[in-house]
Amino acid sequence: MKPWLNIFLSTVLVTGSVQAQFAEGQTVLHGAIGPAFSYMISLDLDQTAFGLLSNFTADFDISDAAEVAGINSNGMVVTGFEGFGEVTPHWTIGMYAGQGEYIASAQDAADVDFTVNFVLSSVGITAEFNTHSRSRLKLLGGSMFGLGQASLVASSSPGNESWDEIIAGTTARKAFELSAWTPVIQPYLGMRFDISRSMGFKTIAGWNEQVASAGSWKLYHNKTIPDSKEVALRALFFRFQLYVIL
Questions:
Q1: Among 34, 83, 105, 117, who pairs with 12 as Cys (CB 3.0-4.6 Å)?
Q2: Quick check: pTM over 0.70?
Q3: 34 CB burial (10 A radius; 0-12, 13-18, 19+)
């Protein structure tokens, strides 16, 4: 996340500079930054692509959401940061970065521990049009355009493995990590409200359009899997941001 943070801070500085040169008249808000919390609805693991996890361990049969706590649930919480600055009285540009995950674990009768972790992250540029009303409340519409990464990490750990066995790789441990880069587009509508001259909040509802194409998945980030499946990561989302006015 450190490279994303550097890009994020640079974007905030650039938007402030652009605003100073092109803003028409005296703007109410020059720029803002703060944490953002999203909730994605119906973002499930694709059964066609990931159904064979049930062969890795029967405890992760994703065709039955009741059997797996977290995996294939109807929502994912995403935490992140967003910053934006005005470039005209009605337009703002900024940057958003966020990450969410499913985590599930189980243990079988032989004391073998199983863990599955699905992580979804994204970073991109935001562009918004707002009403620029004289009140503290502004209605807005916009979109985020950027890149995302989906990853799946699964492992099994025998309950009695020793340090030497782990280092030497002589245990029955099984593990893999898959990942794929994806384009991300998030159109949305919402509102922004300045609580005071120093802080405010923004709330939006939108659509996450994100697809990992067939053949784009890699094993341990370096070995391409040619026959990997296309995985759609589309979902309705709601986001709340509490920002500090710069």
A1: 83
A2: yes
A3: middle
